[in-house]
Amino acid sequence: MEPRTRVYICCSPHRRTGTTTTARLLTDFFVFNGRNFTGFDTDPHERDYGARFPQGVTVVDAEKVQGQVAIFDRLLVHDETPKIVDLSHRYYNGFWETIDQIGFMDEARALLIEPIALFHLDANRASLAAAQALAGRWPDLNMVAVTNKGAAPLGKDAHEILAQFPSPRRVVIGALDPSTRAYFEASDFSMTRFLQTPPSDMSIVIRIGLRAWVAPIFTQFRTIAEDVPFGLGKSKGLMEMGVAALLASNPLRQGR
Predict the structure, then answer these.
(1) Over pLDDT 90: what percentage of the chain?
(2) What angle in degrees, to the nearest 10, is found between the helix axes of 204-225 and 19-32?
(3) Domain 1-175 is in which class?
(4) Strands across the sheet with 38-41, in order?
(5) In this predicted structure, what is the pLDDT of residue 249?
(6) Is the pTM of this model over 0.85?
(7) Phi-psi bin for 34: left (phi > 0), alpha (psi -120 to 50), beta?
(8) 3-state secondary structure of 97
(9) Which of 17, 23, 229, 230 has the largest CB neighbor count within 10 A?
(10) DSSP label at 138?
């Protein structure tokens, strides 16, 4: 198989569904596993993704022509470097309209670039309808349903919503307890630095909680990044240890 360049589009037509969290964690997944990446933050008003990775993420105002040029020209570069787009809900419709107008999908296919829509579902039925509209317009678009149980739980209709999603592929991001979530959301927190060298003053409970939370997420990312069938194998680096090994890595000793 010829090498491809993947473009991960973290998207939702609605706010507060966890797209930035996914973009952050996917970036940490690549960095922790020794991969380069190129990121794009399309929300110049709330540039959380760009602020956390200033050396690798370009903040663009995608509603302006200059911003569109900055992002789409670089998304069509076949360099085998993962591209990660944190697509703001404000620009959701405009982004896909531009994709359509410029013939992005056909050009990407010719250049061996594979767009992957990491579509964030929520309990609003309009979210599912938007996903189905994307699949209807581009039947070959690789789509993954992302559910963030902390940001946008699907509620009692979860099974029905997921059953109607255009693709069987799933990523589930679990909810964090309030204390651990506050640590993760702190502006100076880096998941990569935490995994490499946990702060000596970090609570043991938070340390265990973060590792147990991120391990299955990274495993799911690996299935997407390496085309491994869901449920098979482990990922590199952190994932070679597995969840059980992470929890058995003697955090009590590390915390002393």
Answers:
(1) 76
(2) 80
(3) alpha beta
(4) 57-59, 38-41, 83-86, 5-11, 113-120, 142-148, 170-173
(5) 41
(6) yes
(7) left
(8) helix
(9) 23
(10) -
